[in-house]
Amino acid sequence: MNAVLKDFSVARPKPRTAPRANQRHDHVHCIAAALATASSLCAARGARLTKLRRRVLEHVWNSHVPVGAYELLNRLRADGRRAAPPTIYRALAFLADEGLIHRIETRNAYIGCDFADRPHQAQYFICEQCGVAAEVDASDIHRRIAARADELGFVVSGHNVEVLGICCLCQQRRVHVGSRA
Amino acid sequence: MNAVLKDFSVARPKPRTAPRANQRHDHVHCIAAALATASSLCAARGARLTKLRRRVLEHVWNSHVPVGAYELLNRLRADGRRAAPPTIYRALAFLADEGLIHRIETRNAYIGCDFADRPHQAQYFICEQCGVAAEVDASDIHRRIAARADELGFVVSGHNVEVLGICCLCQQRRVHVGSRA
DNA sequence: GTCAATTGTGTTATACCATAACAAAACTAA
DNA sequence: TTAGTTTTGTTATGGTATAACACAATTGAC
């Protein structure tokens, strides 16, 4: 699964050192892999990944920037399909129920899930410059949250963790801009 | 500061044991303390906590359940004031800028900040039954997030952590309901 | 105090996000 | 094929948020 090979979470063997040159992943393959995973998961579960739902999922996976429902609607219409808001929201609801996408609350937008094939409690690191949201399944973060919940006597059913900041690629870009100025 | 003495985060010396009987905090004092803190902070900063803003803050502090903008608008109108959405949103923007309230993203709602008088990176534990959101400033959670960000080469500017589940008081209530059934 | 500049509030209109309710079409299983 | 189920289309509406501009209040210099 190459799902984590997104714009700024490419495998980085040397944390704490300056990020390497802009190293884009093979996004065509990235989409294909996500779609294949979705197909097999739905098949295994008896969930119906219809053409519409599949197309919406493709549009969501178009980039690693969370996309709004109405933008997806426009893309469906650009496909030549007649569609109104409920069309897109129902598709999104299905995809979310199947764990194929997540909603980014701070953006009112949706993004493909990198870990659809296994249960997880994801966290997102969202770049305020380029908009890319990188999903991470950090069990240590979840454990800290669970421990704190325990202290409060709080039974956790889920969590939403969205970290905002500047991704490593945009930092490089900023340095470039700065050095030019 | 008694800010953390909210419905389900009352001082609990014995974590991991069953929560004690419903022990409500003095909410009148709770509001008064929050308003006093807000006043002194704004005075110190030269920020103008006008009557309108103060009143909105009072309404936000009316309970520990996050409240929507339009509900606040209705409460302002109940005060006899003429108000439209921009009125409330501008007040909310001011209060958020001053760190006096937070927005709960998963609810599109607003809640008073318990740690307005110091810099912090808060987390919220939100009860899906009673709606109460308890703010926690758990540095361990923030450290884990920061560490993971570091691995990604991501520079954090802020984070939004909202944990969903059932609070200890609602668990008690459920047990009671269950034993009666 | 008066004035000009700034800041805050009122008002209208509108944009964006999301869902309810019902009809039509497509699929599924006899 | 037919009945039952699920999915999609359609219309209408509700909930959240902001743009743009006018007016009012406050501030600070004089």
Task: Please characterize this protein's 3D structure.
The structure is a homodimer of 181-residue chains. Chain A has 181 residues and is an alpha+beta fold. Chain A has one domain: Winged helix-like DNA-binding domain superfamily/Winged helix DNA-binding domain (Arc Repressor Mutant, subunit A, Orthogonal Bundle). In chain A, 44% of the residues lie in helices and 16% in strands. The first copy, chain A, has 6 helices and 5 strands; from the N terminus they run ααααββββαβα. In chain A, the strands form 2 sheets. In chain A, strands 4-3-5 form a 3-stranded mixed sheet. In chain A, strands 1-2 form a two-stranded antiparallel ribbon. In chain A, α2 crosses α4 and α3 crosses α4 (85-97). The A-B interface holds A 8-9, 12, 15-16, 18-19, 105-106, 123, 125, 127-128, 134, 136, 138, 140-141, 144-145, 147-168, 171 and B 8-9, 12, 15-16, 18-19, 105-106, 123, 125, 127-128, 134, 136, 138, 140-141, 144-145, 147-168, 171. β5 of chain A pairs antiparallel with β5 of chain B, so a sheet runs across the interface. The first copy, chain A, binds a DNA duplex (30 and 30 nucleotides) through residues 48, 50, 52-53, 68-70, 82-87, 89-91, 94, 108.
Which helices and strands, and how do they pair?
The structure is a homodimer of 181-residue chains.
Chain A: H1 27-45, H2 51-60, H3 69-78, H4 85-97, E1 101-104, E2 109-112, E3 123-127, E4 133-136, H5 139-152, E5 155-166, H6 168-180
Parallel strand pairs in A: 3-5
Antiparallel strand pairs in A: 1-2, 3-4
Helix pairs in contact in A: 2-4, 3-4
The first copy, chain A, binds a DNA duplex (30 and 30 nucleotides) through helix 4.
